[in-house]
Amino acid sequence: MARDPQVSVIMATNPRLLLAGNNPRLIDEWQEQPEIWNYVRHEVDNRKLKGQFILTGSANPPENVKLHSGAGRFTVVQMDTMTWQELGYSSGTVKLSDLLIGEVNDYYEPAISLDFIIERISIGGWPTLINVELENALKMNRGYSDW
To answer: Distance (Å, rounded) from C-alpha 138 to C-alpha 144?
Structure first.
């Protein structure tokens, strides 16, 4: 959202303009303009409808920002990387939880090479990295680290 330089101007002059449009309304990287949270909260109260807005972001707003809890208006969904089963690399037949309680069942799953496992772990399970070559995925992943 705030990557567009116009967003700061709109937030300073007419923030409700960001809430207008087709629903559900996606507001990405909302934490860069955290005041939008309260505008969305008030708009949810005014409309009295569910599922009107989707606020997404790759980080939390700064600690010093005071936000309403959003109770009764927002549902937080934690998004994680995709699992090997979701990516289609595993059938899900073998479950770590079963192994930890001593349940070992007969199964057959074609072997996956160690090189493939290392490559897939290095690429990670981010949906945007599906079908991305290893070298490009590593470049993208470096953006998430400070080293």
So the answer is: 10
